[in-house]
Amino acid sequence: MKIIVCIKQVPDTTEVKLDPKTGRLIRDGVPSIINPDDKNALEQALSIKDENPDATVTVVSMGPPQADIAMREALAMGADEAILISGREFGGSDTWATSYIIATAIKKIGEYDLILCGHQAIDGDTAQVGPQIAEQLGIPQITYVQAMRIEGDEVIATRQLEDGYAVVSAKMPVLLTAIKELNSPRYMTPRGIFEAYEKQVRVWGFADVPVDEARIGLKGSPTNVNKTFSPEPRGKGEMLEGADRNTVKALISKLTEKHVL
Amino acid sequence: MDFNLTPQQQLMQQLMRDFAENEVKPLAAEIDETERFPRETVEKMARFGMLGINVPKQYGGAGADTLSYVLAIEEIAKVCATTAIILSAHTSLACGPILAYGTEEQKQKYLVPLAKGEKLGAFGLTEPNAGTDSAAQQTVAVPEGDHYVLNGSKCFITNGGQADIYIIFAMTDKSKGNKGISAFIVEKGFPGFSIGKKEHKMGIRASSTTELIFEDCIVPKENLLGEVNKGFKIAMTTLDGGRVGVAAQALGIAEGAFEETIRYMKERVQFGKPLSAFQGLQWMAADMKCAIEGAKLLLYRAAMVKDSGRPFSMDAAMAKLRCAETAMDVTSKCVQLHGGYGYSREYPLERMMRDAKITEIYEGTTQVQKMVITGQLFK
Hints:
The structure holds two protein chains of two kinds.
Chain A: E1 2-6, E2 9-11, E3 17-18, E4 25-26, E5 32-34, H1 36-51, E6 56-62, H2 68-77, E7 81-85, H3 95-109, E8 114-118, H4 129-137, E9 141-151, E10 154-161, E11 164-171, E12 174-178, H5 190-196, E13 201-204, H6 245-257
Parallel strand pairs in A: 1-6, 1-8, 6-7, 7-13, 8-12, 9-12
Antiparallel strand pairs in A: 2-5, 3-4, 9-10, 10-11
Chain B: H1 7-34, H2 39-47, H3 66-79, H4 81-101, H5 104-116, E1 121-124, E2 140-144, E3 147-158, E4 165-171, E5 181-187, E6 193-198, E7 209-220, E8 224-225, H6 231-267, E9 269-270, E10 273-274, H7 279-308, H8 313-338, H9 340-343, H10 349-358, H11 366-377
Parallel strand pairs in B: 1-4
Antiparallel strand pairs in B: 2-3, 3-7, 4-5, 5-8, 6-7, 9-10
Helix pairs in contact in B: 1-3, 3-4, 3-6, 4-5, 4-6, 6-7, 6-8, 6-10, 7-8, 8-10, 8-11
């Protein structure tokens, strides 16, 4: 079985601040990490590989050359090979152009049974690239996956919904997007770290991915960002103090008033 | 000169930071309180391949450089000094001498399972009357047929009772002083070998520190490590490596306490402003930061000198001396900055201060480090 995992290197947003004037992320000195949901996707692929030694896991990412370390991290966790799509021409791509580029690269890879993505990245929070890759490739997609298993040529997955869950199945090849409830990603191993640097991360530039130049970068991106800003801080909350019956009653009536209960 | 970590070292630091934060930190206060050896953490380190970090891959290790190993110990010590010394003693003091002096058979039989984490290691040099004067060994090893018979005892042995494989030093020729000491690989189950009293300590309380007792203990001749009567050199070079590990532990303790304190100083408000706004306290923080970074440079350099193959005794001694003193000084100041909370077990600072003290004592006291340094300066 051939599994492709799409990952993205993102700034660790728990340590990111917004520049109050420009509204942009201040990325200086902020550590970069593999997007957390993508690590769940990778863990799922690796656990399938644990049980099927014939399975191969290929990690694909689009990003700047500095994303090399994220690829190495994926290799150190146990991925077999890594492809980094990297080039100036790809810069400025929105989710649509990005998914077109990644889908084109995946077509170039050729055969695959399963594509796993994180459901969304913590920097953009769009949750669009995974589903769009499936659309570009013309394969089924199952999003918000909290559990999955493979039976024959079918994937049976549990999707997390706001008010419950749905169990769906699809014939492979299929694309799934993982949420954090799917699993706990494994650690790298010290040995894996050193072996990751004995492997090669293939870097595919503009010339290596057969894309239509008009459909990539800023000009190939239908999305325009008009403004970014930090939301106004909310007003101070109201504190009810006391551990007696009346305080609880007051709390319940407040919550009912706000339609929380 | 390049002060940047390699990408491998950066990933190693990230891995060990995640591991320390998720697996080690949650247990630190509890195992200190109860003096419980964290067996589950040792099993996790074994499973994730962390018990053979700087052992070559051909012997089941990760094949990492010494600085990667230092970063691993440092990250763990930031949250739990006990767990750091369990790893350091196993790696530096048990894997180290077998790798450096063992025969191929000994490496296959003992180093491979140690590096894979199937077995835990320990090192027995110290005796009740042979501490800093480690040449005054009273444990004796007498050859008899195809084995040696060991008699005597060791004390203050880290991982004692928990380890499966022990590097043990004993006199094979009493008339020759330190030129009559030999090293042996002793398995937990060898006849005549038993574990004595467990120490109750001021710090690193969950690390198992015990006596080892040898009563007509039978050790096969093939378990002699290195040559007969050449054991003292094995002990001393092993301790050079061990000092790099203890220095990393000490540095980690200092950094862990310092990080807690910087956070606290921003939050804790007195006289209407956070502690971090008082210049007298800011200056304490600046001094601590300088001490930590200075000690770190000495340590990282010692690690790199070790890997270069050049003599590193003096570098290791300087690193160990400075890191240990920094740990003691910084943790004491961090307790002070936390005030009453620093003294309370509700916060980790008092534990860190108790843990720091041992780094000035074991694997060569501060005074021994000065002897090593001056021995090189005035030779």
